[in-house]
Amino acid sequence: SDRIQKTNNGRKWKEKKRNVDAAQVLLSSKQRDHEKFETKMKDGEFETVQPHQYKSFRITVQVEANRKGTTHCVELKTGFTHADQGADVSLISDSLANALSVVRKLLPQPMKFQTAEGGSTITRHFASIQIGVAGIWRKVDVLVLPKIKNDTYSLLLGLPWLYQVKARIDIPTFSLRIGDREIDGKRVDIATTKFRQGKNQSIRLAIDDEQIAKKIKAEIDANLREMKTLSVPKNSNTQLDDPFEESSDTDTTVESYSEKSSDDDENQTERLNPSKQACHQVEVQGQSTKANFPTNRRPVRRSLSNEPRELIETWFTSCQAKIGDLVPDEESRFQLKQLLYTYKDINATEISDLPATDLYVHKVKLKEGTKPHH
Fold first, then answer.
1. Nearest Cα to 253, choosing from 191, 335, 318?
2. Higher pLDDT, 230 or 106
3. Which end of the chain has fewer CB atoms within 10 angstroms, the N or the C?
């Protein structure tokens, strides 16, 4: 009986230990997956956080971008741009920089900085972009992040931009006040998505607007159903199709602030002439995670090559190809050459020029004189 009692006690202890281990595995999974945040369990899984456009201090931004050799004013989708006073520099993702056709400049020396996840990143390029927020335009120098797998469109406006626009951040109301009266002639209040203290725990804040909260839940449920239909892992990154707004309806409201504020005595920042062209939509195709068949693999849309112009021109000449009269201006003709150069391996005839794939290449060594029918 003592032996049976010890066996039962050992079984109970193992069950308790197994439960602790399971909890530790779930906690480790939560820490590894940036899309899973809540500690509250639901149907055996962690709740997914709200989409980017509903996170704190996401603002609507207008950018002067190059499209077919012409400068346009485009409006980025809500959620792509984040104002962050904790960032020492302003950053733009490689995919968004390519979509906007920004001119990259080489840094005097590569810059290494720490990321929010605790890792480090080295960047070698930056770009000067004219950015407008609620009619307040500034020329902003942003570091171009290196190209990574599953890159997403993102723009982070850090301390340099906040200083340029004399920003005041109000956490309780989740609003920004920007603008220089001497330069811009006004101060502007920007209201972003509001949050409140959570009812059950204070690990993170909850959406204050019940309608937005319901909309977020509906979007998350729809994404989960779509991922199950396509057999996509739940921790896969979803990527938006187009970096530009399809409509002017956003969650960010702007209103003028006319009273004199005490923060108007800061140093005057350089005023840049905003674009006189009205902002309009520009169609730019982006990567899509949706496929017409159930598979975990996704097609990859390549970014235009950044090789020197002389190299691309030399390659195009060697191809002995010609561009028709339907492409009249020189800049558009060069962009077409860039596109062809980016996919030059499609016309490759040597194995060394072909891109790497997951298919095996079998080489057979034949003796001299071997006939095909052998």
1. 191
2. 106
3. N
